Amino acid sequence: MKYKRILLKLSGEALMGNRQYGIDPDRLAEYAQDIKTITDKGVEVAIVIGGGNIFRGVAGASKGMDRVQGDHMGMLATVINGLALQGALEDVDIPTRLQSAIKINEVAEPFIRRKAIRHLEKGRVVIFGGGTGNPYFTTDSAAVLRAIEIEADVILKGTRVDGIYNADPEKDKTAVKFNSITFDDVLRKGLKVMDTTAFTLSQENELPIIVFDMNTIGNLLKVVSGENIGTVVNI
Question: Contact at 8 Å (CB) between 213 and 162?
Fold first, then answer.
């Protein structure tokens, strides 16, 4: 395996499958099986998942809701998704721990860096819920922050497209995919990989990001093995 310890970033929308909202159990089961293919090979896996399939704080704020209130609701949505993913992983016999940045001790451990690293070393998948625990920060920022804290080798951003393009491939059929690109070029070209705060934090810490299609079964194993899947963003 090319990478020993990874941080997998999943969007909440990814869990919807073909639904309009909520969680698709079939999609969850697919993800769990894919993750099992790499944990079986000794890869240490941490996961940050969004909450957009349940609630988006930014969307709520745009309709007049208090932004801080909305972001707290979004954090709770990520914990719900984390619980669902934990259940799916345990169904395929992967020991899993859910840690939350906001105190919710009845359903999740508090985030403690040393404890998270110890879980990873013991072969447990660690899901980080509750974002960063602060409003105004996205789960992209949470993913980069946690990846740095646990000393992950790479951030794998699982999306529904197979990499980074010079235009939206779902709207522009002439869009060209990048196999690799530097952080500076992403910023210069105005490409959307993560929100600016998260992206800059990753760049400053020289933490590579790989954007790939998580919805194609087997891709996760290929990425971790070092195959040329998706787009690599590096220094």
Answer: yes
Which tokens go with 21? 């909202």
Q: What token pair was written down for 223? A: 């990425």
- How far are the Cα atoms of 85, 90, 131 from residue 119, in angstroms, in the given order? 17, 15, 19
DSSP conformational letter for 16: G
| Sign for the pseudo-dihedral over CA of 163, 204, 118, 122 | positive
CATH number, domain 5-234: 3.40.1160.10
Among the listed residues 214, 193, 209, the one whose alpha carbon sits nearest the alpha carbon of residue 13: 214
- The model scores a pTM over 0.85: yes
Within a 10 A sphere around the Cβ of 170, how many other Cβ atoms? Answer: 10
Q: What phi, psi does 182 have (nearest 5°)?
A: -85, 160
**Contact between residue 115 and residue 98 where contact means Cβ atoms under 8 Å apart:** no
Q: Which pLDDT score is estimated for 169?
A: 87
Res 113: pLDDT: 98
pLDDT (mean) for 54-77: 87
Q: How many Cβ atoms from other residues are within 10 Å of residue 151's Cβ? A: 11
